[in-house]
Amino acid sequence: MVKQVDSRSGKKNKIAFRPIIILSILSMIGFVICAVSDLSYYIGVETYIIDGFEDGNPAKELYEHNIEQWGNKGVDVSLGGLKLVRQLFLILGIMNVPVLLGVALMFYRVKIGFKIYAVCQLAYILIPIYFLGFGFYPIFRVLGYGDLLIMILFVIMWGIQRKNMDRKTTPK
User: Which domain holds residue 117?
Assistant: First the structure.
């Protein structure tokens, strides 16, 4: 367990055990990667929809190529379909915030953080399936279904660490 001294009272505050610290760091890295990915998709699709890319912009060519591939794999790439994809990535980008809140609470050993984290991770998994079906993960994610497995694995690992939350003594 890591102890921190409160500068005002001089008391030692218990923050977290090493596994919780490691999971927190890995979860923060995952948060940054997911948030950047989701919000960049949102901005890119939005810019493509409003025809905001200048001619010759490599990003425009990249999105045209991606949208063509999405269409070949069954995604509705009409204007309405692209607006749905854009909306999906905005929702996913926003869903990252309560996930981060859950991680922060778990770092400080507050058990409710796990419930927030687990529910939001489950929502993060199910919302794309609701919007676009099971084909979402292989089309829009780097690891495809591996992303699902990683999210589920982290929920399980955090669940195992729940026993170390709200403890008053150090385990030996």
Answer: 15-164
